Amino acid sequence: MAEASDVFLRAVEITKSYGALHALDRVSLDIARGEFLTLLGPSGSGKTTFLMCLAGFVEATAGRLEEAGVDITQRPAEARRYGMVFQGYALFPHMSVAENVAFPLRVAGMARGARGARVAEMLETVGLAPLGNRRPHQLSGGQQQRVALARALISHPPVLLLDEPLSALDKNLREQMQEEIKSLHRKIGSTFVFVTHDQTEALSMSSRVAIFNHGRVQQIGTPEEVYEHPANRFVAEFLGRINLIPLDQAVVANCRLTGRFEGQELTAPAPKGPLNTPVIAVRPEYMRLSAGPPHQGENGLRARVRARVYGGAQSVLQLTTDSGVEISLDVPSRGEAPSMACGETVWVTWPRDSGFALSGES
Ligand code: ADP
Ligand code: MG
Fold it and tell me: Could you identify the atom of ligand 1 that is nearest to the CA of residue 16?
């Protein structure tokens, strides 16, 4: 969590209701000055609504917003002056690139002469200096999105809000723009709040990620924290593939979960709080195929190879245990594992500290 002194934006118990539907349900969130915070969650989880509350375009039903310790709940959007970038670029088609970027300055009443220098500088920053005279339709999708970024940043807003700005772009261009937005953030140093439903994008771009579901923040933390130590099953499953292994005679003691699965004793670190029908959760990349039973310090189970799904450098091996639990693990496509015959029974092992305990009921 950000230190109190670093907090730039603070949301306290923000609720937004549409009739009986809570688009946001008591969302409390601190955003540090200069951080790159990503709001991640499935469609309909409340990400856009929260961003619009921050911008001042949606009025919360209840709750409080603060900027630098000052209550801004009632402050209108134009007085907040946050920059915004959306998925659709919303550029003015009849204006040149330079006129689009200059637009907020013109609205603010800045003289033409002063505008020119600022626009040139901004176009330089986003790598569009030679294209100032083009119209938006003469640009690629990535270039149009850069114009939108330049226009949003030209007035030096204290906060830039980005709502799924890259989801219309194809994969390669999206990855390139992710890099560009990250480097823009480093260059400019203002606070970025970025929305996506893509977990890879969230994990690779952000200083912290807030995971939304059903209008609630499920967890907030660094990418490593939320991926390696998910607070609940929703977060664990949303952030990537995960194997869930149910236990008999499960006991939590001394911050460890221990129990039995098909005759094997399995164990994993457990959080302090209570767990309902605890399971052991293991990311596929921690599991490997072994010639024999687990060594000391490892967990292991027996499973039958069901299918192998080729994925370029890595393949996914899908297995099923005797009691029907499905396990998936990552193997290098060019190792010995891919030649493993379907139907063969193998050992799957993983270090005892590489799994974690979760409540089985989500
Ligand atoms: P996300 O951006 O995560 O996809 P939204 O914030 O757009 O989610 O929506 C959250 C929920 O609020 C959804 O169930 C959506 O249908 C509902 N919602 C959003 N805006 C309105 C509105 N103006 N009127 C009624 N329901 C809305
Ligand atoms: Mg949305």
Answer: 12
Q: Are 235 and 45 in contact (CB under 8 A)?
A: no
Q: What angle do CA 286, 238, 11 make, to 5 degrees?
A: 125
Minimum mean pLDDT range among 2-6, 28-32, 124-128, 231-235: 2-6
**Closest protein CA for atom 18 of ligand 1:** 23
User: Nearest bound ligand to CA 163?
Assistant: 2
Which atom in ligand 1 lies closest to the alpha carbon of residue 45? 3
Domains, the chain, in order of start with CATH, read 4-237 (3.40.50.300), 241-359 (2.40.50.140)
Question: CA-based Rg of the chain, rounded to a whole angstrom?
Answer: 25
From 49, 58, 161, 199, mutation site for ligand 1 pocket: most ligand atoms within 8 A of C-beta = 49
User: 44 CB under 6 A from ligand 1?
Assistant: yes
pLDDT, tens only, 242-259: 999 999 999 999 899 999
Pairwise CA distance, residues 112 & 38, whole Å: 36
Beta bridge partners of 285: none
- Judge whether residue 362 has pLDDT over 70: no
Task: Please give the single-letter amino acid code of residue 117.
Answer: A
Long-range contacts of 154-158 (CB under 8 A, 24+ apart): 154/101, 154/102, 154/104, 154/105, 154/118, 154/119, 154/122, 155/81, 155/83, 155/104, 155/105, 155/108, 156/190, 157/81, 157/82, 157/83, 157/190, 158/8, 158/67, 158/81, 158/82, 158/190, 158/191
Pairing of strands 326-332, 288-290: unpaired
Which pTM value belongs to this model? Answer: 0.91
pLDDT at 2 over 80: no
**Both tokens assigned to 139:** 């640009």
Q: What pairing do the DSSP bridges indicate for beta strands 356-359 and 345-351?
A: unpaired
d(CA 222, CA 214): 21
> 3-state DSSP call for residue 119?
helix
Q: Which pLDDT score, from 0 to 100, does residue 233 have?
A: 92
